[in-house]
Write a structure and sequence with these properties.
The chain is an alpha/beta fold. The protein contains 5 helices and 5 strands. Helix content is 42%, strand content 19%. α1 links the parallel β1 and β2. α1 crosses α5 and α2 runs parallel beside α3.
């Protein structure tokens, strides 16, 4: 069973996506920000990271950069609703800095599961 590290500072999004991913056959480790995510990454066997961009403490762009340094081939899906400034496209920045794929909020749980399937390499 593949393990997803899911990072979002919104409790409702974390709960909803955790439930959908669990029902979709994934193990889920949830974190509220990048600092907590990096700690949980060290403690768990993570196959893919799904991270929000706009978060307190350690936001998603910085988190993606750190995961790329720790694990260059780890699939990372960045998700964002945009934030306050529509002039800055956080998802394109995330992709340039190492996100494997991006999802614009709102998206359906099925869209997330499809993105995870595309980014996880088949087991040998």
């Amino acid at each position: 069973m593949s393990c997803v590290l899911l990072i979002d500072d919104d409790d409702l999004i974390l709960e909803t996506l955790t439930l959908a991913l669990t029902e979709g056959g994934y193990q889920v480790v949830a974190a509220m920000d990048g600092n907590e995510a990096l700690e949980k990454f060290k403690q768990n066997d993570i196959d893919i990271v799904v991270t929000d961009i706009i978060m307190p403490n350690k936001e998603g762009i910085e988190t993606i950069i750190q995961f790329r340094q720790i694990s260059p081939h780890l699939p990372i899906i960045a998700m964002s609703g945009g934030g306050r400034s529509s002039k800055l496209d956080f998802l394109s920045v995330a992709r340039k800095l190492g996100a494997s794929e991006t999802l614009k909020k709102p998206f359906s749980p099925d869209e997330l599961i499809e993105a995870i399937r595309r980014n996880l390499k088949p087991a040998d």
